[in-house]
Amino acid sequence: MPLIEAHNIGIEFPVAPPNARSFRHLALRTASRVGGKVLTNEGSFRFVQALDDVSFTLRRGDRLGLIGHNGAGKTTLIRVLAGIYEPTRGSLRTVGRNVPMFDIGLGMDEEATGYENIRIRGLILGLTPEEIEERVAEIAEFAELGDYLELPIRTYSSGMLLRLVFSIAASIHGDIILMDEWIAVGDAQFRKKTHDRLLDITNQSGIVVIASHDHGLLKDLCNLGLYLEGGHVRAFGPLEDVLKELPAT
Amino acid sequence: MTSLANENEERFVIAERRRFSWARCRTDVAPFLTRQVTWRALAAGDIRSKYRRTFLGPWWITATNGLTAVIMGLVAGRFLGADTTTYLPNFMVSITIWNFIASSLGESCYTMINAGGMIKAVDMPILIHLMRMVQRNLIIFLHNMAIVPIIWLVFPWRIGFDALLCLPGLAIVYVFVVSASVIISFVCVRYRDVPPVVAAILQLLFFISPIIWLPSHIRGGEIIVQLNPIAYLLSITRDPLMGNTPGLTSWFGALGAVALLTAAMIYTYTRYRSRVVYWA
After folding, report:
1. How far apart are CA B241 and CA B157, in angstroms?
2. Angle between helices B84-114 and B194-208 (to 10 degrees)
3. B52: which chain A residues are within 8 Å (Cβ-Cβ)?
Protein backbone atom coordinates (compact mmCIF):
# COMPACT_ATOMS: atom_id res chain seq x y z
CA MET A 1 0.00 0.00 0.00
CA PRO A 2 1.47 3.33 -1.05
CA LEU A 3 2.63 5.44 1.84
CA ILE A 4 4.56 8.62 2.53
CA GLU A 5 5.83 9.17 6.05
CA ALA A 6 7.69 12.42 6.59
CA HIS A 7 9.15 12.83 10.02
CA ASN A 8 10.63 16.19 11.11
CA ILE A 9 12.18 16.74 7.70
CA GLY A 10 14.68 19.57 7.45
CA ILE A 11 16.56 20.73 4.38
CA GLU A 12 19.49 23.10 4.49
CA PHE A 13 21.08 24.38 1.34
CA PRO A 14 24.69 25.39 1.67
CA VAL A 15 25.09 28.77 0.05
CA ALA A 16 28.65 29.45 -0.85
CA PRO A 17 29.62 33.09 -0.76
CA PRO A 18 31.69 33.96 -3.84
CA ASN A 19 34.95 32.73 -2.34
CA ALA A 20 34.01 29.85 -0.10
CA ARG A 21 34.50 27.22 -2.77
CA SER A 22 37.99 28.31 -3.73
CA PHE A 23 41.25 26.87 -2.56
CA ARG A 24 42.67 30.35 -2.19
CA HIS A 25 40.02 31.11 0.36
CA LEU A 26 40.59 27.80 2.13
CA ALA A 27 44.29 28.54 2.37
CA LEU A 28 43.64 32.06 3.64
CA ARG A 29 41.27 30.79 6.26
CA THR A 30 43.75 28.24 7.52
CA ALA A 31 46.42 30.89 7.59
CA SER A 32 44.15 33.31 9.39
CA ARG A 33 43.76 30.84 12.23
CA VAL A 34 47.39 31.57 13.00
CA GLY A 35 47.33 35.31 12.50
CA GLY A 36 43.95 36.11 14.00
CA LYS A 37 40.27 35.77 13.21
CA VAL A 38 40.22 37.97 10.15
CA LEU A 39 38.22 35.85 7.74
CA THR A 40 36.37 33.43 9.96
CA ASN A 41 32.93 34.94 9.51
CA GLU A 42 33.29 36.76 6.27
CA GLY A 43 33.05 34.19 3.51
CA SER A 44 32.17 31.16 5.58
CA PHE A 45 29.35 28.90 4.42
CA ARG A 46 25.84 30.04 5.12
CA PHE A 47 22.73 27.94 4.91
CA VAL A 48 19.29 28.53 3.61
CA GLN A 49 16.75 26.68 5.68
CA ALA A 50 14.39 25.57 2.92
CA LEU A 51 12.35 23.19 5.07
CA ASP A 52 12.19 22.91 8.82
CA ASP A 53 10.49 20.27 10.92
CA VAL A 54 7.99 19.08 8.30
CA SER A 55 5.99 16.03 9.35
CA PHE A 56 2.96 14.35 7.80
CA THR A 57 1.70 10.95 6.75
CA LEU A 58 -0.14 10.16 3.52
CA ARG A 59 -1.91 6.88 2.71
CA ARG A 60 -3.69 5.42 -0.30
CA GLY A 61 -6.32 7.79 -1.62
CA ASP A 62 -4.79 10.90 -0.11
CA ARG A 63 -4.47 13.91 -2.42
CA LEU A 64 -2.33 16.58 -0.84
CA GLY A 65 -2.31 20.17 -2.04
CA LEU A 66 0.77 22.21 -1.12
CA ILE A 67 0.08 25.89 -0.69
CA GLY A 68 2.26 28.81 0.26
CA HIS A 69 3.95 31.88 -1.14
CA ASN A 70 6.90 31.78 -3.53
CA GLY A 71 9.92 30.47 -1.68
CA ALA A 72 7.84 28.77 0.99
CA GLY A 73 9.45 25.40 0.20
CA LYS A 74 6.78 23.75 -1.96
CA THR A 75 9.10 22.74 -4.79
CA THR A 76 11.81 21.64 -2.38
CA LEU A 77 9.33 19.42 -0.56
CA ILE A 78 8.19 17.88 -3.87
CA ARG A 79 11.81 17.12 -4.70
CA VAL A 80 12.49 15.63 -1.31
CA LEU A 81 9.50 13.31 -1.79
CA ALA A 82 10.85 12.37 -5.23
CA GLY A 83 14.11 11.25 -3.63
CA ILE A 84 16.23 13.96 -5.23
CA TYR A 85 17.26 15.78 -2.08
CA GLU A 86 18.03 13.58 0.88
CA PRO A 87 16.79 15.34 4.01
CA THR A 88 19.53 16.89 6.13
CA ARG A 89 17.39 16.33 9.21
CA GLY A 90 14.56 13.94 10.04
CA SER A 91 13.53 10.92 8.01
CA LEU A 92 11.34 9.97 5.09
CA ARG A 93 9.74 6.65 4.20
CA THR A 94 7.97 6.12 0.90
CA VAL A 95 6.37 2.92 -0.32
CA GLY A 96 5.46 2.59 -3.99
CA ARG A 97 6.86 3.75 -7.30
CA ASN A 98 6.85 7.52 -7.59
CA VAL A 99 6.33 9.24 -10.92
CA PRO A 100 7.65 12.80 -11.01
CA MET A 101 5.58 15.15 -13.16
CA PHE A 102 7.84 18.21 -12.95
CA ASP A 103 10.69 19.40 -15.21
CA ILE A 104 9.33 16.91 -17.70
CA GLY A 105 11.33 18.27 -20.65
CA LEU A 106 14.86 17.84 -19.27
CA GLY A 107 17.43 15.82 -21.13
CA MET A 108 15.86 16.20 -24.57
CA ASP A 109 18.26 16.44 -27.49
CA GLU A 110 17.64 19.26 -30.00
CA GLU A 111 19.27 17.40 -32.86
CA ALA A 112 17.43 14.13 -32.33
CA THR A 113 14.05 13.35 -33.86
CA GLY A 114 10.80 13.23 -31.93
CA TYR A 115 10.91 9.43 -31.85
CA GLU A 116 14.50 9.41 -30.60
CA ASN A 117 13.60 11.88 -27.88
CA ILE A 118 10.76 9.64 -26.74
CA ARG A 119 13.43 6.94 -26.23
CA ILE A 120 15.84 9.34 -24.49
CA ARG A 121 13.20 10.53 -22.04
CA GLY A 122 12.11 6.95 -21.45
CA LEU A 123 15.67 5.95 -20.57
CA ILE A 124 15.96 8.88 -18.19
CA LEU A 125 12.72 7.82 -16.50
CA GLY A 126 14.30 4.42 -15.95
CA LEU A 127 12.40 2.37 -18.52
CA THR A 128 14.10 -0.41 -20.45
CA PRO A 129 14.30 -0.11 -24.27
CA GLU A 130 11.62 -2.84 -24.59
CA GLU A 131 9.28 -0.98 -22.22
CA ILE A 132 9.82 2.16 -24.27
CA GLU A 133 9.09 0.47 -27.61
CA GLU A 134 5.76 -0.73 -26.24
CA ARG A 135 4.79 2.86 -25.50
CA VAL A 136 6.11 4.71 -28.55
CA ALA A 137 3.00 4.24 -30.70
CA GLU A 138 0.67 5.35 -27.93
CA ILE A 139 2.76 8.44 -27.15
CA ALA A 140 2.91 9.37 -30.83
CA GLU A 141 -0.84 9.04 -31.12
CA PHE A 142 -1.49 11.19 -28.07
CA ALA A 143 0.88 13.96 -29.19
CA GLU A 144 -0.88 14.21 -32.60
CA LEU A 145 2.35 15.40 -34.21
CA GLY A 146 2.15 13.01 -37.16
CA ASP A 147 5.16 13.01 -39.47
CA TYR A 148 6.85 15.72 -37.43
CA LEU A 149 8.03 12.96 -35.08
CA GLU A 150 10.48 11.94 -37.80
CA LEU A 151 12.10 15.40 -37.73
CA PRO A 152 14.65 16.80 -35.27
CA ILE A 153 12.87 18.60 -32.45
CA ARG A 154 14.76 21.83 -33.16
CA THR A 155 12.29 22.25 -36.04
CA TYR A 156 9.30 22.19 -33.65
CA SER A 157 7.45 25.23 -32.43
CA SER A 158 7.50 25.61 -28.66
CA GLY A 159 3.88 24.49 -28.49
CA MET A 160 4.62 21.34 -30.45
CA LEU A 161 7.61 20.59 -28.24
CA LEU A 162 5.45 20.90 -25.13
CA ARG A 163 2.92 18.51 -26.67
CA LEU A 164 5.64 15.92 -27.15
CA VAL A 165 7.11 16.48 -23.69
CA PHE A 166 3.70 16.17 -22.07
CA SER A 167 2.72 13.09 -24.06
CA ILE A 168 5.86 11.28 -22.91
CA ALA A 169 5.42 12.25 -19.27
CA ALA A 170 1.73 11.40 -19.26
CA SER A 171 2.19 7.94 -20.74
CA ILE A 172 2.92 6.38 -17.38
CA HIS A 173 1.45 6.44 -13.93
CA GLY A 174 2.69 4.97 -10.68
CA ASP A 175 1.72 4.74 -7.04
CA ILE A 176 2.76 8.26 -6.09
CA ILE A 177 2.32 11.26 -8.40
CA LEU A 178 4.34 14.38 -7.63
CA MET A 179 3.38 17.54 -9.46
CA ASP A 180 4.74 21.07 -9.28
CA GLU A 181 1.81 23.10 -10.64
CA TRP A 182 -0.85 21.59 -12.83
CA ILE A 183 0.42 21.19 -16.37
CA ALA A 184 -1.49 22.87 -19.19
CA VAL A 185 -0.08 22.81 -22.70
CA GLY A 186 -1.15 23.46 -26.25
CA ASP A 187 -4.21 25.01 -27.83
CA ALA A 188 -7.73 24.86 -26.41
CA GLN A 189 -8.47 21.40 -27.75
CA PHE A 190 -5.18 19.87 -26.60
CA ARG A 191 -5.44 21.66 -23.27
CA LYS A 192 -8.73 19.83 -22.63
CA LYS A 193 -7.04 16.57 -23.55
CA THR A 194 -4.10 17.13 -21.17
CA HIS A 195 -6.48 18.09 -18.39
CA ASP A 196 -8.50 14.89 -18.83
CA ARG A 197 -5.34 12.80 -19.02
CA LEU A 198 -3.93 14.32 -15.82
CA LEU A 199 -7.23 13.62 -14.06
CA ASP A 200 -6.98 10.01 -15.28
CA ILE A 201 -3.45 9.72 -13.96
CA THR A 202 -4.26 11.21 -10.58
CA ASN A 203 -7.38 9.06 -10.25
CA GLN A 204 -5.42 5.87 -10.91
CA SER A 205 -2.63 6.67 -8.49
CA GLY A 206 -2.50 5.85 -4.81
CA ILE A 207 -1.17 9.17 -3.59
CA VAL A 208 -1.00 12.56 -5.27
CA VAL A 209 0.99 15.55 -4.06
CA ILE A 210 0.56 18.76 -6.00
CA ALA A 211 1.94 22.23 -5.35
CA SER A 212 -0.23 24.96 -6.80
CA HIS A 213 -1.35 28.55 -6.41
CA ASP A 214 -4.70 27.73 -7.99
CA HIS A 215 -6.93 27.16 -4.96
CA GLY A 216 -9.96 26.41 -7.10
CA LEU A 217 -8.11 23.56 -8.75
CA LEU A 218 -6.88 22.23 -5.42
CA LYS A 219 -10.46 22.25 -4.09
CA ASP A 220 -11.54 20.03 -6.99
CA LEU A 221 -8.60 17.70 -6.63
CA CYS A 222 -7.41 17.40 -3.07
CA ASN A 223 -8.76 16.24 0.25
CA LEU A 224 -5.75 17.37 2.28
CA GLY A 225 -3.80 20.61 2.40
CA LEU A 226 -0.40 21.61 3.69
CA TYR A 227 0.29 25.30 4.15
CA LEU A 228 3.99 26.10 4.13
CA GLU A 229 5.49 29.39 5.20
CA GLY A 230 9.24 29.96 5.20
CA GLY A 231 9.85 26.23 5.30
CA HIS A 232 7.61 25.65 8.32
CA VAL A 233 4.27 23.90 8.34
CA ARG A 234 1.65 26.54 9.19
CA ALA A 235 -1.28 24.16 8.85
CA PHE A 236 -1.93 20.58 7.82
CA GLY A 237 -5.29 18.86 7.58
CA PRO A 238 -8.45 18.80 5.49
CA LEU A 239 -8.00 21.27 2.63
CA GLU A 240 -11.02 23.38 3.57
CA ASP A 241 -9.60 24.07 7.03
CA VAL A 242 -6.10 24.77 5.73
CA LEU A 243 -7.37 27.27 3.15
CA LYS A 244 -9.04 29.20 5.96
CA GLU A 245 -5.61 29.75 7.51
CA LEU A 246 -4.47 31.73 4.47
CA PRO A 247 -4.33 35.47 4.97
CA ALA A 248 -7.34 37.10 3.33
CA THR A 249 -6.57 38.94 0.13
CA MET B 1 -1.21 4.88 -20.43
CA THR B 2 0.72 2.13 -18.70
CA SER B 3 1.16 1.52 -15.05
CA LEU B 4 4.52 1.39 -13.38
CA ALA B 5 2.91 0.78 -10.03
CA ASN B 6 5.07 -1.31 -7.79
CA GLU B 7 4.05 -1.38 -4.21
CA ASN B 8 7.10 -3.33 -3.15
CA GLU B 9 9.33 -0.40 -3.86
CA GLU B 10 10.27 1.04 -0.51
CA ARG B 11 12.65 3.85 0.28
CA PHE B 12 13.71 4.96 3.71
CA VAL B 13 16.14 7.79 4.23
CA ILE B 14 17.18 9.10 7.58
CA ALA B 15 19.29 12.19 7.94
CA GLU B 16 22.55 11.33 9.60
CA ARG B 17 26.20 11.68 9.02
CA ARG B 18 26.72 9.37 6.09
CA ARG B 19 29.22 6.69 6.90
CA PHE B 20 30.67 4.00 4.78
CA SER B 21 29.00 0.60 4.91
CA TRP B 22 29.11 -2.36 2.57
CA ALA B 23 25.33 -2.53 2.28
CA ARG B 24 25.16 1.12 1.26
CA CYS B 25 28.10 0.63 -1.07
CA ARG B 26 26.32 -2.21 -2.85
CA THR B 27 23.13 -0.26 -3.46
CA ASP B 28 25.09 2.84 -4.51
CA VAL B 29 27.35 1.11 -7.00
CA ALA B 30 24.63 -1.23 -8.35
CA PRO B 31 23.43 1.22 -11.09
CA PHE B 32 26.74 0.51 -12.84
CA LEU B 33 25.18 -2.84 -13.79
CA THR B 34 21.43 -2.39 -13.32
CA ARG B 35 21.22 0.82 -15.35
CA GLN B 36 23.83 -0.19 -17.92
CA VAL B 37 21.29 0.04 -20.75
CA THR B 38 20.52 3.62 -19.76
CA TRP B 39 24.04 5.00 -19.81
CA ARG B 40 25.11 3.05 -22.85
CA ALA B 41 22.12 4.14 -24.91
CA LEU B 42 22.45 7.77 -23.79
CA ALA B 43 26.16 7.81 -24.72
CA ALA B 44 25.49 6.28 -28.13
CA GLY B 45 22.84 8.96 -28.66
CA ASP B 46 25.34 11.69 -27.73
CA ILE B 47 27.80 10.48 -30.35
CA ARG B 48 25.09 10.13 -33.00
CA SER B 49 23.85 13.60 -32.19
CA LYS B 50 27.31 15.16 -32.36
CA TYR B 51 28.04 13.87 -35.85
CA ARG B 52 24.55 14.24 -37.28
CA ARG B 53 24.48 16.16 -40.55
CA THR B 54 28.14 15.32 -41.20
CA PHE B 55 29.35 13.25 -44.12
CA LEU B 56 31.70 10.87 -42.31
CA GLY B 57 29.73 10.70 -39.08
CA PRO B 58 31.67 9.22 -36.14
CA TRP B 59 34.37 8.14 -38.59
CA TRP B 60 35.53 11.74 -38.44
CA ILE B 61 37.17 10.67 -35.18
CA THR B 62 39.19 8.03 -37.04
CA ALA B 63 39.98 10.46 -39.84
CA THR B 64 41.35 13.15 -37.52
CA ASN B 65 43.43 10.57 -35.69
CA GLY B 66 44.77 9.40 -39.05
CA LEU B 67 45.78 12.95 -39.85
CA THR B 68 47.71 13.13 -36.57
CA ALA B 69 49.49 9.93 -37.60
CA VAL B 70 50.52 11.37 -40.95
CA ILE B 71 51.79 14.63 -39.44
CA MET B 72 53.71 12.89 -36.67
CA GLY B 73 55.11 10.41 -39.16
CA LEU B 74 56.43 13.26 -41.31
CA VAL B 75 57.70 15.48 -38.53
CA ALA B 76 58.27 13.93 -35.13
CA GLY B 77 60.32 10.94 -36.20
CA ARG B 78 62.84 13.33 -37.75
CA PHE B 79 63.48 15.75 -34.94
CA LEU B 80 63.43 13.03 -32.31
CA GLY B 81 66.04 11.21 -34.38
CA ALA B 82 63.96 8.03 -34.29
CA ASP B 83 63.21 5.56 -37.05
CA THR B 84 59.71 6.33 -38.33
CA THR B 85 58.82 2.69 -39.00
CA THR B 86 59.17 1.77 -35.32
CA TYR B 87 58.47 5.16 -33.76
CA LEU B 88 55.21 5.98 -35.51
CA PRO B 89 53.21 2.81 -34.63
CA ASN B 90 54.37 3.06 -31.05
CA PHE B 91 53.46 6.72 -30.80
CA MET B 92 50.03 6.27 -32.38
CA VAL B 93 48.99 3.42 -30.07
CA SER B 94 50.28 5.33 -27.03
CA ILE B 95 48.59 8.61 -27.91
CA THR B 96 45.28 6.85 -28.64
CA ILE B 97 45.24 5.15 -25.25
CA TRP B 98 46.39 8.37 -23.57
CA ASN B 99 43.65 10.37 -25.26
CA PHE B 100 41.04 8.02 -23.82
CA ILE B 101 42.44 8.54 -20.31
CA ALA B 102 43.05 12.28 -20.65
CA SER B 103 39.79 13.26 -22.32
CA SER B 104 37.74 11.24 -19.82
CA LEU B 105 39.51 12.75 -16.83
CA GLY B 106 39.36 16.21 -18.39
CA GLU B 107 35.63 15.93 -19.09
CA SER B 108 34.94 14.50 -15.65
CA CYS B 109 35.73 17.95 -14.19
CA TYR B 110 32.51 19.29 -15.66
CA THR B 111 30.33 16.18 -15.71
CA MET B 112 28.52 16.84 -12.43
CA ILE B 113 28.55 20.62 -12.89
CA ASN B 114 26.91 20.35 -16.31
CA ALA B 115 24.48 17.66 -15.21
CA GLY B 116 23.39 19.91 -12.32
CA GLY B 117 20.00 20.72 -13.84
CA MET B 118 19.21 17.09 -14.41
CA ILE B 119 20.53 15.98 -11.00
CA LYS B 120 18.11 18.42 -9.35
CA ALA B 121 15.16 17.38 -11.49
CA VAL B 122 15.29 13.63 -12.02
CA ASP B 123 15.59 10.89 -9.45
CA MET B 124 18.39 9.07 -11.28
CA PRO B 125 21.59 7.66 -9.76
CA ILE B 126 24.30 10.25 -10.48
CA LEU B 127 26.69 7.46 -11.44
CA ILE B 128 24.75 7.30 -14.71
CA HIS B 129 25.90 10.79 -15.74
CA LEU B 130 29.48 9.74 -15.19
CA MET B 131 29.22 6.39 -16.94
CA ARG B 132 27.56 8.15 -19.88
CA MET B 133 30.61 10.40 -20.19
CA VAL B 134 33.09 7.51 -19.91
CA GLN B 135 31.10 5.44 -22.41
CA ARG B 136 31.14 8.36 -24.85
CA ASN B 137 34.91 8.50 -24.59
CA LEU B 138 35.16 4.73 -24.95
CA ILE B 139 33.24 4.91 -28.24
CA ILE B 140 35.63 7.64 -29.44
CA PHE B 141 38.59 5.52 -28.31
CA LEU B 142 37.38 2.49 -30.28
CA HIS B 143 36.97 4.62 -33.40
CA ASN B 144 40.48 5.96 -32.88
CA MET B 145 41.87 2.44 -32.55
CA ALA B 146 40.60 1.70 -36.07
CA ILE B 147 43.65 3.55 -37.35
CA VAL B 148 46.04 0.98 -35.86
CA PRO B 149 45.44 -1.81 -38.45
CA ILE B 150 45.99 0.74 -41.22
CA ILE B 151 49.34 1.76 -39.73
CA TRP B 152 50.21 -1.94 -39.42
CA LEU B 153 49.60 -2.38 -43.14
CA VAL B 154 51.99 0.48 -43.90
CA PHE B 155 54.69 -0.30 -41.31
CA PRO B 156 54.13 -3.95 -40.34
CA TRP B 157 55.51 -5.25 -37.05
CA ARG B 158 55.47 -8.73 -35.57
CA ILE B 159 52.08 -9.48 -34.07
CA GLY B 160 50.78 -12.73 -32.57
CA PHE B 161 48.16 -14.12 -30.25
CA ASP B 162 49.97 -12.60 -27.28
CA ALA B 163 48.54 -9.28 -28.50
CA LEU B 164 45.28 -10.42 -26.88
CA LEU B 165 46.96 -9.65 -23.55
CA CYS B 166 46.05 -6.04 -24.25
CA LEU B 167 42.40 -6.87 -23.46
CA PRO B 168 42.88 -7.41 -19.70
CA GLY B 169 45.16 -4.38 -19.90
CA LEU B 170 42.38 -2.26 -21.42
CA ALA B 171 39.94 -3.53 -18.78
CA ILE B 172 42.32 -2.26 -16.08
CA VAL B 173 42.64 1.10 -17.85
CA TYR B 174 38.83 1.30 -18.00
CA VAL B 175 38.47 0.75 -14.26
CA PHE B 176 41.18 3.34 -13.68
CA VAL B 177 39.34 5.90 -15.81
CA VAL B 178 35.97 5.26 -14.11
CA SER B 179 37.42 5.48 -10.60
CA ALA B 180 39.50 8.59 -11.25
CA SER B 181 36.57 10.29 -13.01
CA VAL B 182 34.20 9.74 -10.09
CA ILE B 183 36.66 11.22 -7.63
CA ILE B 184 37.58 14.18 -9.86
CA SER B 185 33.94 14.97 -10.68
CA PHE B 186 33.00 15.04 -6.97
CA VAL B 187 35.92 17.26 -6.01
CA CYS B 188 35.25 19.60 -8.97
CA VAL B 189 31.56 20.08 -8.24
CA ARG B 190 32.46 20.99 -4.66
CA TYR B 191 35.55 23.12 -5.31
CA ARG B 192 35.17 25.02 -8.56
CA ASP B 193 38.88 25.87 -8.72
CA VAL B 194 39.93 22.32 -9.34
CA PRO B 195 39.19 21.94 -13.10
CA PRO B 196 42.13 24.12 -14.23
CA VAL B 197 44.38 22.29 -11.77
CA VAL B 198 43.32 18.96 -13.26
CA ALA B 199 44.04 20.29 -16.76
CA ALA B 200 47.54 21.32 -15.68
CA ILE B 201 48.20 17.95 -14.05
CA LEU B 202 47.03 16.12 -17.18
CA GLN B 203 49.46 18.13 -19.28
CA LEU B 204 52.26 17.32 -16.89
CA LEU B 205 51.37 13.62 -17.00
CA PHE B 206 51.44 13.73 -20.78
CA PHE B 207 55.05 14.88 -20.78
CA ILE B 208 56.33 12.58 -18.04
CA SER B 209 54.68 9.47 -19.53
CA PRO B 210 56.28 7.48 -22.33
CA ILE B 211 54.02 8.74 -25.13
CA ILE B 212 56.07 11.00 -27.36
CA TRP B 213 59.24 9.32 -26.10
CA LEU B 214 60.08 5.67 -25.55
CA PRO B 215 61.35 4.35 -22.25
CA SER B 216 64.50 3.40 -24.14
CA HIS B 217 65.11 7.06 -25.03
CA ILE B 218 65.49 8.01 -21.43
CA ARG B 219 68.93 8.69 -20.01
CA GLY B 220 68.71 8.92 -16.26
CA GLY B 221 65.54 9.73 -14.35
CA GLU B 222 64.01 6.27 -14.78
CA ILE B 223 62.31 6.95 -11.48
CA ILE B 224 59.79 9.08 -13.39
CA VAL B 225 58.61 5.99 -15.23
CA GLN B 226 58.75 3.80 -12.14
CA LEU B 227 56.56 6.11 -10.05
CA ASN B 228 54.11 7.03 -12.80
CA PRO B 229 50.95 4.88 -12.82
CA ILE B 230 50.19 6.08 -16.36
CA ALA B 231 53.46 4.50 -17.54
CA TYR B 232 52.30 1.13 -16.17
CA LEU B 233 48.85 1.50 -17.71
CA LEU B 234 50.42 2.31 -21.07
CA SER B 235 52.82 -0.60 -20.75
CA ILE B 236 50.12 -3.23 -20.15
CA THR B 237 48.01 -2.05 -23.09
CA ARG B 238 50.52 -0.83 -25.65
CA ASP B 239 53.28 -3.42 -25.25
CA PRO B 240 51.13 -6.49 -26.11
CA LEU B 241 49.81 -4.66 -29.17
CA MET B 242 53.34 -3.80 -30.26
CA GLY B 243 54.44 -7.42 -29.98
CA ASN B 244 56.25 -7.08 -26.65
CA THR B 245 55.35 -8.79 -23.40
CA PRO B 246 54.88 -6.38 -20.50
CA GLY B 247 56.89 -7.31 -17.41
CA LEU B 248 55.30 -8.43 -14.16
CA THR B 249 56.29 -5.08 -12.61
CA SER B 250 53.98 -3.33 -15.07
CA TRP B 251 51.05 -5.60 -14.23
CA PHE B 252 51.56 -5.24 -10.49
CA GLY B 253 52.17 -1.52 -10.76
CA ALA B 254 48.98 -0.97 -12.76
CA LEU B 255 46.84 -3.31 -10.62
CA GLY B 256 48.11 -1.73 -7.41
CA ALA B 257 47.39 1.81 -8.57
CA VAL B 258 43.91 0.86 -9.83
CA ALA B 259 43.03 -1.06 -6.65
CA LEU B 260 43.96 1.92 -4.47
CA LEU B 261 42.07 4.34 -6.67
CA THR B 262 38.96 2.15 -6.86
CA ALA B 263 38.86 1.77 -3.08
CA ALA B 264 39.11 5.56 -2.76
CA MET B 265 36.37 5.96 -5.38
CA ILE B 266 33.95 3.59 -3.66
CA TYR B 267 34.48 5.38 -0.36
CA THR B 268 34.05 8.84 -1.92
CA TYR B 269 30.94 7.84 -3.85
CA THR B 270 29.20 6.17 -0.94
CA ARG B 271 30.09 8.91 1.50
CA TYR B 272 29.30 11.99 -0.61
CA ARG B 273 26.80 10.78 -3.23
CA SER B 274 23.79 12.41 -1.60
CA ARG B 275 25.62 15.73 -1.11
CA VAL B 276 26.34 16.27 -4.81
CA VAL B 277 22.80 17.52 -5.50
CA TYR B 278 23.38 20.28 -2.92
CA TRP B 279 26.71 21.28 -4.48
CA ALA B 280 25.69 21.09 -8.15
Report:
1. 10
2. 170
3. 111-112, 152
